[in-house]
Amino acid sequence: MERDVEPLSRQAMSLFTDAAESFDDDVVALTALIALFTGVRNYTIGHIHADWFNHVNGALWMKVPTKTPCTKTADDTICGDCNQNKRGGRDFAPKSDAGGGRRLKIPESWHNKHTDTESQQDLSLRSMIEHHFKLEEESHGNMLLGGKGLSKRTVNKYVKAVAEEADIGFFRNNGYVQHRDLGRVPDLFPHDLRATYCVQLARNDANPWKMCKRTGHADIESLKPYIKIASQEIEGDFENSFI
Length: 243
Ligand SMILES: [Zn+2]
What we know:
The chain is mostly helical. The protein has a single domain, classed as hpI Integrase, Chain A, CATH 1.10.443. 38% of the residues lie in helices and 8% in strands. The chain is built from nine helices and seven strands. The strands form three sheets. It has a three-stranded antiparallel sheet, with no helix packed on it. The protein has a two-stranded antiparallel ribbon with strand order 3-4. The chain has a two-stranded antiparallel ribbon with strand order 6-7. Helix 2 crosses helix 5, helix 2 packs across helix 7 and helix 7 packs across helix 9. The site of zinc ion has 7 residues, from helix 4.
């Protein structure tokens, strides 16, 4: 990805979420929603394992491990993405120390505290995860997304498939895109969804410390652009200029 990351607007986020929720391929849908609502990196998404999930006090949590043997090596092939991950040395390892070991609550609804007039919107992400991995049963269903885990390339492809369905991601103007041009591949990457997750935390007044903890950013400085976007939206001088 050559351009800077660009978060989705509230409107584009809604379109993307709706498209994912109704997408006819469950694995594509699940991949897209995980990217948007957990903010984990493409590489991490591909390695998500049934064992990362835990029910605590009625909620579903996902724990991103620290350096650990690649979860995709069940058939003795080395995962190409881990092979290229110098940091992990053929193991799975999140990009930063701050990224490993973090626990993320899987949301069951979402909203924007300041700009939404309607209340929380339900999200089927939790039930989709429980169903895909059969978390309620002793012997799990899939251990990895889609059975064998996903390559970064495949995660990119799935995100674009949902973006296409949502009619977003073709032309960008500060991250706000509504126009669809048939024949063009949507310009939307998992990292834009991670950026959206960061902005969404700021939209709902998460404090910077909490944002670092959730997103695996090592320092507050790198979160400032997202906080700025959210505060501009709240002031109303950002979203209006794109409608
Ligand atoms: Zn791997």
